[in-house]
Amino acid sequence: MSTLLLEEMTWPEIKTALENGYRTVIIPSGSIEQHGPPLAQISDTTIGEASALDLAKRLGKTLVAPVIRPGLSDHHLALPGSLSLRPQIFAGLVEDYIACYKAHGFKQFILISSHGGNFSALDDITAKMQEKYPNLKFVTGLPLPDLINLLADMEREENMPAGSCGGHACDYETSVMLHLAPQHVRMAEAKAGYVGKPTPEILDRMHQKGITAVSASGVLGDPGRADAERGKRYFEKEQEAIYRAIRNKLDH
Ligand SMILES: [Zn+2]
């Protein structure tokens, strides 16, 4: 098949894929939200699509839904251009995707997010869908705390200063974007934002008062030395971790 992305396939191609055992679909969710001065608002959506496509190739017999965006981004609304859905609208979108693909014959649904703000909602939706459709399988990716730990590990392995990979338009995300979609990166504008541990207090303050209560530029981390080659390594390590978290939960 020339693509695993459902929105780029024709219905006869999708029908043939289903007949050939492609019964697993990844539903990625991202965001359209500010990513500081260095990154375009589409960043989580770009990374989410690339991540889902890579995961589908690793898993085999798996197709990828159009990335759901916007996501849940209330804490970014202070900076212009960010979009955020009401939680019930976001849940409705995910559930409607599932209802459609279920009707077409998909049996396993992988709900992953490239945007931290969607994680807890996806956990709730996954549990609700599993209860509603006990004969289907619903799986989420790496839990958010594991991803945050992974960022810290990768930062150390790459010998980057502590706090570089703060999690938002940081060395990790900016490097990955330089690797995947450099046209969306403004390296001349890449400067350190909040550089410190993403402690529960910091995350609470960000979610309650908005990101500008923590970082005026909307950056968490330091993208100033971002690099495409390092971005490729970050992406591959993260993908391997996501793949390992998911593969054993599936039926194939
Ligand atoms: Zn992002």
Structure description:
The chain is an alpha/beta fold. The protein has a single domain (6-247), classed as Creatininase (Rossmann fold). The chain is built from eight helices and four strands; from the N terminus they run H-E-H-E-H-E-H-E-H-H-H-H. The protein has helices spanning 11-19, 43-59, 87-104, 119-132, 144-157, 171-180, 200-209, 228-247; strands at 24-29, 62-64, 108-113, 137-140. It is globular and about 50 Å long. The structure holds zinc ion. The site of zinc ion (ZN) has 6 residues, from helix 2.
Topology overview:
Elements lengths: L10 H9 L4 E6 L13 H17 L2 E3 L22 H18 L3 E6 L5 H14 L4 E4 L3 H14 L13 H10 L19 H10 L18 H20 L5
Parallel strand pairs: 1-2, 1-3, 3-4
The chain binds zinc ion.
Zinc ion binds next to helix 2.
Work out the helicity level. Answer: 40-55%
Q: How much is the radius of gyration in Å?
A: 18 Å
Largest sheet, spatial ordering of strands = 2-1-3-4
User: Which CATH-level-2 architecture?
Assistant: 3-Layer(aba) Sandwich
Coarse morphology: globular
Bound molecules: zinc ion
When the domains are counted, the total is 1
